[in-house]
Amino acid sequence: MSTRFDRRIYTIRSFRAAIDDALEHMHELRAARRAGRVSKPFAERIMLAVTQVNGCRYCSYFHTRVALQAGVPATDIRAL
Questions:
Q1: What is the torsional sign of CA 66, 76, 73, 77?
Q2: 3-state secondary structure the chain
Q3: What is the value of pTM for the model shown?
Q4: What are the pLDDT digits (tens) for 30-68?
Q5: N-to-C CA span, the chain
């Protein structure tokens, strides 16, 4: 079995592993936000940039919506 990351196609197993990893580190992300080190709009800009590199349309859709809700201007989102 290959361990290569296919950035556009998730299997159920790889999607589950990605979700588990995100949930495992969620406390670290929340701690950084609570401490004021990372604002929600800035965090979503980072997520949009990573999503663009990975090319996942589902992540792009999700993070675009969250970024808009966090107050990131649509022009900034399009630029990313």
A1: negative
A2: CCCCCCCCCCCHHHHHHHHHHHHHCHHHHHHHHHCCCCCHHHHHHHHHHHHHHHCCHHHHHHHHHHHHHCCCCHHHHHHC
A3: 0.62
A4: 888 788 888 889 888 988 988 888 788 888 899 999 999
A5: 34
